[in-house]
Design goal:
mainly alpha; 6 helices
């Protein structure tokens, strides 16, 4: 299973925003520079995060992007869902797919269990957890 670039870059952009003072916005150009994401591609990422209600634009003296709620209340699952409709390790688990073997397929239970574990893990990790982990990694390197 592979997660999309939009999800991966969305997480990186959110870490960048969450790592700043909550009352101070972060400019898109700074996110792009610090996370090494092209500004043009970051436009799409920012749009998805705004539509999902995870970030908003702040105007005025401390303008830029800010989180719409505390980092501890935003999960990696929330960020993932800004770009993908849920987690689905194989096609037959998708609600939009009707599999003829669904009822008697022993493997479906295995894949469903794996899918649930991944989903639960994404829901258990907050944006705050990643920001704190980044800080502790930086301290260890210094």
């Amino acid at each position: 299973m592979k997660f999309s670039t939009r999800t991966r870059y969305g997480i990186r952009a959110m870490i960048e925003i969450a790592g700043h003072d909550p009352g101070e916005g972060v400019f898109q150009k700074d996110i792009a520079k610090n996370q090494e994401i092209s500004n043009k591609y970051l436009d799409h990422i920012i749009h998805g995060l705004k539509v999902a209600g995870l970030i908003s634009s702040r105007m005025g003296r401390k303008s830029g992007y800010i989180l719409t709620r505390p980092a501890a209340e935003i999960t990696i699952y929330d960020i993932h869902n800004a770009f993908e409709p849920g987690i689905c390790v194989i096609d037959c688990l998708s609600p939009s797919v009707k599999c003829d073997r669904e009822k008697g397929c022993a493997a479906r239970g295995f894949w469903g269990g794996l899918n649930q574990r991944i989903t639960d893990y994404f829901k258990s990790v907050s944006l705050k957890d990643l920001v704190e982990n980044k800080t502790s990694l930086e301290d260890a390197i210094s």
